[in-house]
């Protein structure tokens, strides 16, 4: 730099012009050095590192490259150069050094943030990340580093010890508690969620209070991100999962079966004892032949043993069409390829109500996928609604407009026939 001053003086220029011109030349020269150093670090050094990482067999190398960890670290080179040349400007040396140090700290914070994010991405490549997510903890560490960095930058700029600023934070603790309330609650909630294994990434949860019904796709410090069935995204505060109730379908997904619990209403006026013709018809049904033979033998032995007079059908035991239909459904489910045979299969009657007699199916499909589950359930009830009339049963439904119109037409036809007969 002294050489530049001497060179300008040898050109016999005005000393005042030499002073300012030399400063401009020094600034331009330092700028060129910074640009050249930044170019070398990014275009040559970073490219060499990228090639080495790409050619290596380390599986997390691409993640570090994607997060641009080395590229962000390269920004520290210009600040080191500027700090080194600060003595060139004695008047502003202290200010330049402070700004260079502040810039270096900021670059370091950006580098640490990228490194932490890369570490989280690497961790997510392991299966344990779905059970024990660490994103919330990484965000806490990031906040700590950012807070420390902010204190260091301020203390450097004002020329005071960081301990002085730290001592002042105690007085601002109430304000900090208010500002970071959600983060603190989220941190505690995240520890509880992880320790108790309450929710994982990939779990299907329901939380009607927040309109959430879908898969958990992200668990962070403050929020849990849920993708609903309609592909919308619902953000739930982390602490809400510990303070409010929610349903987690993970148990169902891991059990290997998804429950069917649906009923059909039978018109009670269609329930009757089975006639001889009905029994002869039912005994030819694949899923009923063994049941009918066994049940008929059991009933005959019971009635004979108790000397029951069967001339009155009320006496003794007899088959009913609703009972045979219930046995048919049970055997049908036990032979259905879509039903899990190792889990509960029940066909039961519920309390009679104004809609008829509820006949409920309680069983589990052997596939937990939603589409497969709905298909199996629909196929079963398609069959049962179609086969119910074969047992002399009517499925109840409230009268529709077509039913009322048919009744009116039937009444009109009867009245017309009666008038003609008269």
UniProtKB/TrEMBL annotation:
InterPro entries the UniProt entry points to: LSM_dom_sf, MscS_beta-dom_sf, MscS_channel_2nd, YbdG
Domain Mechanosensitive ion channel MscS intervals: 182-250
Compartments it resides in: Membrane
Residues passing through the membrane, by range: 20-41, 99-119, 140-158, 164-180
Source species, domain of life: Bacteria
SUPFAM superfamilies registered for this protein in UniProt: Sm-like ribonucleoproteins
Keyword vocabulary terms for this entry: Membrane, Transmembrane, Transmembrane helix
Pfam families in alphabetical order: MS_channel_2nd
Protein name: Mechanosensitive ion channel family protein
Organism this protein belongs to: Neobacillus driksii
Taxonomic placement: Bacteria, Bacillati, Bacillota, Bacilli, Bacillales
């Amino acid at each position: 730099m002294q050489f530049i001053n001497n060179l300008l003086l040898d050109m016999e220029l005005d000393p005042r012009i030499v002073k300012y011109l030399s400063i401009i030349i020094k600034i331009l020269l330092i700028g060129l050095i910074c640009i050249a150093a930044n170019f070398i670090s990014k275009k040559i050094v970073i490219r060499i590192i990228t090639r080495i990482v790409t050619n290596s067999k380390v599986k997390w190398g691409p993640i570090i490259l994607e997060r641009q960890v080395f590229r962000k670290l390269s920004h520290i080179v210009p600040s080191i150069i500027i700090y080194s040349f600060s003595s060139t400007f004695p008047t502003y040396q202290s200010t330049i050094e402070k700004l260079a140090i502040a810039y270096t700290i900021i670059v370091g914070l950006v580098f640490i943030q990228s490194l932490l994010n890369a570490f989280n991405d690497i961790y997510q490549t392991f299966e344990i990340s779905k059970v024990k997510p660490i994103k919330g903890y990484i965000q806490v560490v990031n906040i700590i580093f950012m807070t420390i960095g902010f204190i260091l930058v301020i203390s450097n700029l004002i020329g005071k010890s960081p301990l002085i600023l730290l001592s002042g934070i105690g007085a601002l603790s109430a304000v900090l508690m208010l500002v970071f309330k959600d983060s603190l609650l989220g941190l505690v909630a995240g520890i509880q969620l992880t320790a108790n294994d309450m929710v994982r990434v990939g779990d299907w949860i329901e939380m009607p209070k927040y309109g959430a019904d879908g898969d958990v796709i992200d668990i962070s410090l403050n929020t849990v991100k849920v993708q609903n069935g309609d592909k919308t995204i619902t953000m739930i505060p982390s602490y809400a999962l510990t303070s409010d109730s929610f349903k987690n379908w993970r148990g169902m997904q891991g059990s290997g079966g998804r429950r069917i619990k649906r009923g059909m209403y039978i018109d009670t006026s269609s329930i009757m004892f089975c006639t001889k013709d009905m029994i002869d018809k039912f005994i030819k049904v694949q899923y009923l032949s063994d049941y009918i033979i066994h049940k008929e033998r059991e009933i005959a032995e019971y009635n004979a043993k108790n000397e029951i007079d069967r001339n009155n059908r009320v006496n003794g035991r007899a088959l009913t069409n609703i009972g045979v239909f219930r046995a048919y459904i049970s055997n049908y489910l036990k032979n259905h390829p879509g039903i899990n045979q190792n889990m509960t299969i029940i066909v039961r009657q519920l309390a009679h109500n104004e809609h008829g007699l509820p006949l409920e199916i309680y069983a589990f499909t052997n596939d937990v996928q939603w589409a497969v589950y709905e298909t199996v359930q629909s196929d079963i009830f398609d069959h049962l609604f179609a086969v119910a009339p074969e047992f002399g049963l009517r499925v109840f439904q409230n009268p529709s407009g077509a039913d009322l119109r048919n009744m009116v037409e039937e009444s009109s036809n009867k009245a017309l026939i009666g008038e003609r007969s008269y």
